[in-house]
Specification:
The chain is α/β, with parallel strands linked by helices. It folds into two domains: 2-138 and 278-324, Rossmann fold (3-Layer(aba) Sandwich), CATH 3.40.50.450; 142-275, Phosphofructokinase domain (Rossmann fold, 3-Layer(aba) Sandwich), CATH 3.40.50.460. Helices cover 35% and strands 19% of the residues. It is built from ten helices and 13 strands. The chain has a seven-stranded mixed β-sheet with strand order 3-2-1-4-5-12-13, sandwiched between helices. A four-stranded parallel β-sheet has the order 7-8-6-11, with helices on both faces. The chain has a two-stranded antiparallel sheet with strand order 9-10. Helix 5 (139-160) crosses helix 6 (175-183). The radius of gyration is 21 Å and the shape is elongated. The termini are far apart. 6-O-phosphono-beta-D-fructofuranose binds next to strand 10.
Length: 342
């Protein structure tokens, strides 16, 4: 009998529970029992645990968020944090650890491997910005919400002849904006990978009006930067334990700039946490289930310091170090989608 510890860190996303369920159920079948650590890395630091038997994970496949709770705790920024984690793992007789999260959570898992911890990562973030995997858990579900939001914005924008701006997440990556905007037929798509010019957007809207299109829908990623502005628009300048500021407000910034130049009303919707909450899409449920199963398989094969990844239809292990050192921003081959129908 082996024992796996599991935790979920960083911003949550729909599908995490499906991955937890798969680890517990597939593990159980292979004589691996699971113990859950609560609140991200805070759990193993403070010894916050809960048993996870097959009965404890019943009925969670379709539920968003994480039953284990999450945090942005960085043990490497806490005095004695790493030693406390090592102590907790020993006390609980943990053979290996599964960490579900984004770059920050997986980065801690990789650094702990240097301290002898046998860790396996499962990528989850709606931003889809983790290297060496085509998809992370959560992206597909967030796209569903964004697409639905754009469909709804279209009907009201059309009725009121308005310019409507939808701000979405993504940090430095434009996947949510680009793919959401493409799926939802946004007229203008703005992403962090390509600085935007207010004057150009203004011209695009006028051009649409000249073609009797009396409304326009703009989707903007929170990290998109207007040319000439020094840096991204911040909701909060304070830096978290992993060195990130909180982005937000570029939609309102853009709307204010456009309103100065135009007669027709410009309004903003910030999709914020709505795009991260709720039930996982079928794609995310399946991906998360496959990742959870693969994590146990990799452990039984003795592969550690790796992350579960999807390449095409195949689930494969990639070295955590390689995933963490590979940037996953929108590549130039997809930039044509930004201006496809303007
Ligand atoms: O999980 C990633 C993410 O959704 C980013 O897109 C966003 O910038 C960030 O989380 C916001 O997280 P929070 O406000 O929960 O710290």
């Amino acid at each position: 009998m082996q024992r796996v510890g599991i935790l979920t860190g960083g911003g949550d996303s729909p599908g995490i529970n499906a991955a937890i369920r798969a680890v517990v159920r597939f593990g159980y079948r292979h004589d691996v029992s699971t113990i859950g650590f609560l609140e991200g890395w805070q759990g193993p630091i403070e010894g916050l645990t809960r048993p996870l038997g097959p009965d404890d994970i019943s009925g969670i496949l379709h539920i968003g968020g994480t039953i284990l709770g999450s945090s942005r705790t960085n043990p490497f920024k806490i005095e004695g944090g790493v030693e406390r984690i090592l102590g907790t793992l020993e006390r609980n007789a943990i053979d290996f650890l599964v960490a579900i999260g984004g770059d920050d959570t997986l980065g801690v898992a990789h650094r702990l491997a240097e301290h002898g911890v046998k860790a396996i990562g499962i990528p989850q973030t709606i931003d889809n910005d983790i290297g060496m995997t085509d998809y992370a858990i959560g992206f597909s579900s967030a796209l569903d919400v964004i697409t639905d939001a754009l469909d709804r914005l279209h009907t009201t924008a059309f009725s009121h002849h308005r310019v409507l701006v939808l701000e979405v997440m993504g940090r430095d990556a434009g996947w949510l904006s680009l793919m959401g905007g493409t799926a939802g037929g946004a007229d203008i798509i703005l992403i962090p990978e390509k600085a935007f010019k207010i004057e150009r957007i203004h011209r695009q809207i006028l051009h649409r009006q000249a073609r009797k299109k009396h409304f326009s829908i703009i989707i903007v990623a929170e990290g998109a930067q207007p040319e000439g502005l020094d840096g991204q628009v911040l909701a909060e300048a304070e830096i978290d334990a992993f060195g990130h500021v909180r982005l937000g407000g570029v939609g309102q910034y853009l709307a204010n700039q456009l309103a100065e130049r135009m007669e027709i009303p410009v309004r903003v919707t910030n999709l914020a946490y709505l795009q991260r909450g709720g039930s996982p899409s079928p794609f995310d449920r399946i991906l998360a289930t496959r990742f959870g199963v693969a994590a146990i398989e990799f452990a039984l094969e003795g592969r550690f310091d790796v992350m579960t990844a999807i390449h095409g239809t195949k689930i494969e292990p990639v070295r955590l170090e390689e995933a963490l050192n590979t940037s996953r921003l929108v590549d130039s081959g997809l930039l044509y989608l930004v201006d496809l129908f303007d």
